[in-house]
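Recap quiz, item 2
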Amino acid sequence: DAGVIQSPRHEVTEMGQEVTLRCKPISGHNSLFWYRQTMMRGLELLIYFNNNVPIDDSGMPEDRFSAKMPNASFSTLKIQPSEPRDSAVYFCASTFAPTDTQYFGPGTRLTVL
Amino acid sequence: GNSVTQMEGPVTLSEEAFLTINCTYTATGYPSLFWYVQYPGEGLQLLLKATKADDKGSNKGFEATYRKETTSFHLEKGSVQVSDSAVYFCALSGMNTGFQKLVFGTGTRLLVSP
């Protein structure tokens, strides 16, 4: 079975550019989570969706970050404009609520120069 | 609010040594408890879980017991291998309007030398 798919795996961009990260959850899962991982702050939950609806976006750092889930098989996390402090590994995870085991994708390593 | 506290790393061991990584939690209600593992360059993978007090989760030689009286979920393995080198995250699930939201600890890096 295919797991959670994320693209790109690596992204290098310059400050001020728009960045879009993509995620395809496991088929049949109805909840999707976006996390950010850095050495300084560890693993942070940014936002999560249930049945394509954003439930909690309190972890989104600021207005430069936005996330969408137009259908059950696709989600995007956009940063516009990007800044060097956004450099991190971004993970997507999915599950079938109400079960609580989340399945993580391989992550996107973002570097903003 | 809910929180998880893990021991600071890195934990450095020789192959075949006994491993303990401490994890304590603060939560309302009766959360489920998890250990996730992250190998270099990869996402997190579920290692084991326990859903109620006194449950023992186990997988790949790792074990952890849900201790409600001490609010702990310590990870143990009797004999570690070099391939166990990774970062280990303790987590709990907090019900939030019916949807499962995991709260993670800061992670503990394990380094196993031959």
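The interface with chain A takes residues 32, 34, 36, 41-46, 49, 89, 93, 96-102, 104, 106-107 of chain B (CB under 8 Å).
The two ends of chain B are 41 Å apart (CA to CA).
End of item.
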